[in-house]
Amino acid sequence: MDFLNLLKPYGGRILWSGAGLLTALLFLNIGFLKTLVILICFALGYVIGLQADGKIDLKPKIKTIFNWLKK
User: Fold this and answer.
1) Of the candidates 37, 36, 58, 39, the residue with the CA atom closest to the CA atom of residue 47
2) Cα–Cα dist 45/58, whole Å
3) Cα gap 63→69, rounded to integer Å
4) What's the pLDDT at 65?
5) 51-68 as b/e: b if 16+ CB within 10 A
6) CA–CA dist 38, 26 (Å, integer)
7) Looking at the whole model, is its pTM more than 0.90?
8) In angstroms, rounded to a whole number, what is the distance separating the alpha carbons of residues 25 and 31?
9) First and final CA of the chain: distance in angstroms?
10) Residues 38-65: pLDDT tens digits?
């Protein structure tokens, strides 16, 4: 328990360092485009999950994007 409390202030750095390492390994093993597709799918899934949890409302953002595309 004390070890976890010691690491708590560095949680973001540990998490994103691990994510960077995983991305680098994917890039080296399967290539850039496949890694990019995986990262885009992950990001979309995360945003959709936020919508499902009620943390964000995507409808105004989507409406803004479509209005911008109509120009």
Assistant:
1) 58
2) 13
3) 10
4) 87
5) eeeeeeeeeeeeeeeeee
6) 9
7) no
8) 9
9) 56
10) 999 999 988 888 888 888 888 888 889 8
Q: Give me the mean pLDDT over the 6-20 stretch.
A: 86
| Distance, CA of 71 to chain centre | 29
For 46, the token pair is: 């995360």
CA distances from 9 to 14, 15, 57 (A): 10, 12, 30
Q: pLDDT above 70 covers what percent of the chain? A: 99
One-character DSSP codes across the chain? -HHHHHHGGGHHHHHHHHHHHHHHHHHHHH-HHHHHHHHHHHHHHHHHHHHHHTS--HHHHHHHHHHHHH-
